[in-house]
Amino acid sequence: MPWIQLKLNTTGAQAEAIGDALVESGAVSVTFQDTHDVPVFEPLPGETRLWGDTDVIGLYDAETDMKQVVAMLEYNPLLGLGFIHKIEQLEDKDWEREWMDNFHPMRFGERLWICPSWRDVPDANAVNVMLDPGLAFGTGTHPTTALCLQWLDGLDLEGKTVIDFGCGSGILAIAALKLGAAKAIGIDIDPQAIQASRDNAQRNQVSERLELYLSKDQPENLKADVVVANILAGPLRELAPIIGQLPKAHGHLGLSGVLATQAEGVAEAYQALFQLDPVAEKEEWCRITGIRK
User: Which positions in this protein are listed as binding S-adenosyl-L-methionine (predicted)?
Assistant: First the structure.
């Protein structure tokens, strides 16, 4: 069915209250989007992560009288008369089908392909990960995931144990297993991510080698030869005392979900424990890697 979208700009401090006002005015959903197109992946438990310059987008049924909606919103003290906004008619599409049609097999590094589960693999002799992300983050299309996949493809994972911290769809853990790892452990705060990872592991016939835990349930004293965490700069800094203890001595660490401008701050949180490599960058995003001292 067609929809109408109302979009306005505000600050992070006011965004949630304005989002509530849109819902009260009849919006069926509200989305917060960074004005500068900086995506959000993994908020901390109980946290709604916002930005300094935030677009608040309300989605309304196509039959909604938007003049009446705007008039109602003008009474809100955070908006007022004549508040700046944009109203758009959204094309009626099968959005799930459109997304599926535009998700193509992608190659990372020398050996690895990420392939949508509903498409044929381009190279039957390659290392192919069949993926359906479901509601979880991680398809390989974002630069941070691509950076991690390329890094994993370049490691000797034969017989190793890998921890994927913030596993999302399971793409990194499953790729590691297909690249030769003996065992992978996926950890996430979101039950939907655990389910998506489990489904994708079964799809790739590696479920018997993948352990999955909600972060609150992860075993104590976990250790691995390789640890990868593709989350956000803030959590990477805050969780450095936890993530930094996961690699074994001389084990590998890979961090992403970090803008190039944030790399120095994240690296500082890990440099005492790790011999860090030069930062790798892709489209303003970066990957920080190192070896446990």
Answer: 145, 166, 188, 230
Q: Does residue 53 sit in the same domain as residue 128? A: no
Tokens of 27: 């919006």
Tell me how many domains the chain contains: 2
Residues tagged in the binding site annotation: 145, 166, 188, 230
pLDDT at 125 over 50: yes
At 39 the pLDDT is 47
Query: pLDDT, tens digit, for every residue of 202-234?
Result: 999 999 999 999 999 999 999 999 999 999 899
Query: Rounded to whole angstroms, how far apart are CA atoms 186 and 178?
Result: 15
Please identify, among 43, 58, 92, the residue that sits at the C-terminal boundary of a domain: 92
**Helix axes 171-178 and 191-203, enclosed angle (nearest 10):** 30
> Same structural domain for residues 180 and 59?
no
Name residues whose C-beta falls within 8 Å of residue 256's C-beta, 6 or more positions apart in sequence.
144, 145, 147, 148, 228, 229, 230, 285, 286, 287, 288
